[in-house]
Amino acid sequence: MGAANERVVYMDNNATTKVAPEVFEAMKPYFTELYGNPSSMHTFGGAVSESIKKARRQVANLLGTEPEEITFTSCGTESDSTAILSALRTYPDKRHIITTRVEHPAVKSLCENLEMVTGNKYRVTRLKVDSEGLLDLEEYRAALSEDTAIVSVMWANNETGVVYPVEEMARMAKKRDILFHTDAVQAVGKVPINLGELDIDFLSLSGHKLHAPKGVGVLYTRKGTFFVPFLTGGHQEHGRRGGTENVSSIIGLGRACELAAEKMEEENVRVKALRDKLEQGLLKSIPSSMRNGHETNRLPNTANISFEFVEGEAILLHMNRYNICASSGSACTSGSLEPSHVLRAMGVPFTAAHGSIRFSLSVYNTEEEVDFVLEKMPAIIASLREMSPFWEKKG
Amino acid sequence: MWEYTDKVQQHFLEPKNVGEIENPSGTGDVGSLACGDALKLTLKIDENDIIVDAKFKTFGCASAIASSSVLTEIIKGMSVDEAAKVTNEDIAEALGGLPKEKMHCSVMGREALEAAIADYRGLVPPMAEGELVCECFGVTDLEILRAVKESNLRSVEEITNFTKAGGGCGKCEDRLRELLKQGSNQILDIPMVKAQPKRMTVLQKIKKIEEVLDLEIRPALRKDGGDIELVDVDGDFVTVSLLGACKSCQKSQTTIKDYVEKKLRELVLESLIVEEEN
Questions:
Q1: Which member of A314, A335, A386 has the closest CB to residue B60?
Q2: Measured distance CA(A149)–CA(A65) in Å, rounded
Q3: Is B24 on the interface with A (CB under 8 A)?
Q4: Is Metal-binding given among the entry's keywords (chain B) (predicted)?
Q5: Would strands A148-152 and A302-307 be described as parallel, antiparallel, or unpaired?
Q6: Choosing a second label site near A341 at 20 to 30 A (CA), which of A262, A267, B78, B200?
């Protein structure tokens, strides 16, 4: 669809981010100059191996851990599957998994498949959330059992930005000798993480959510944790993940982690202020709109707002005319017929769930962009409400 | 991102006939907030049964809005009888096609139109009857059977794309599979009646073959000065003998295979094999 302004206003950073120019610069030599295989015996390949070591250190520094605890993978989904399946293979007699109702499909679908293909040999507890998206730790405590092989709880939710108390939950699991995995894809780079002081056994992250390229991820595995590889093959990644390294992307991810550490404060001050201005502005200027997710217990960059009585896909396509990019929890955008499982778990009414829009900012957003969105949104929502059969009834 | 045609985009961004007619001759109200799309169609029909105005209000995605808009354009100026024949395929076609996952938007258009016409005529919309199959989206067996037949649906996934049934909890999937079988069998029944493939006795076969030879094949061969005789029927093997001009014709084999066998297969039994007596 044709856009009215040339410039893209990108507020969909929880979907993916732009590769930082510094990251791209760091990657460039590894395509046509330093293209050796890090496993080779010659110095030419060995130099690449040294660069990967450096990237591993850069990732470890951001997470507050040791380089040997870092395994490079192809994406967050691979990291999630590797961690959960490794735990199940380590403890074949344990048949219980604890997760939440608001997990990303990477974990949600894996658990569903495990139940299905094993004919419910595996039992999955999915922890409830309240209307603000928060977990009940008492329910969690009661769910932990002798039979629990692993707990998998996301650090921050991709749709609402709600942050979960994984530090405390990992501690509770550790007391019961249960492995703890967290999908931290949305949290890394936005919340400070110091794994050295925590009881988390596995952590997944994804490069393209923090200004590294798509196609590279990391699985952190705490030293001393039993590990069964998911991808077998060569001896790469200390035998933890077969397959020739995605060298340039790994170098990029290392640099991106370094940048994330440098920009963490900006993210939590300037980006947060932009998000707040956007959110408050929208809620004020557009009637029957509401925030989804806890107000403070949240990532600094995410605003999930419902505009009642209109449908998300229609909103997005109108925004698209102005080159404003965001996402929706509406059913129609995904090809499924049901709105977001996250918003439904929170009990968001259908009137609001179908009209939910997620704005997710990054350090590359400006105040002008926020003003531009604030200027355009009221008319978009008003024009769709004009043709909604429910708006009139409501008014 | 969906691949929407220019027509869909045009009708979505600049929809025609948005609104509600005051004191309408007929109103069609379908869908709900929970379902994610809903359409209220109002018609103004004159004393000659012509739809002189149509307006819509829609809650839904781009294709739901575009389907509603194009529907009002299609039916304006039509007689009520003509409008009653408009199908969801007509709506999708007028938009240059819809992504398959969005076909239910065109179905919603047709349902609203049917409901509005029923309202005008003082009738109950036909689809409101029937047994509820999909509880999540409130879809009845009649709606599903109709979609299976009209749009030639061949999988549960297609049923979901067209009617939304099965798109929620998925509990009705087995029932949908049954309805799919039921709906598509009724289509297959038609050629089955023609060819009568079920157990025919040899006598029935011979009788039927003689009948077809008499009524269809002999008249054609006689035009060219030829004729045909039935020699034997053994299972599916039919032995014939060509007579007259056909006997010496170099194309006799072609006549047997491409004409006689084809006709007998079509009108008697699909499995017949026709051979010439040596």
A1: A314
A2: 24
A3: no
A4: yes
A5: unpaired
A6: A267
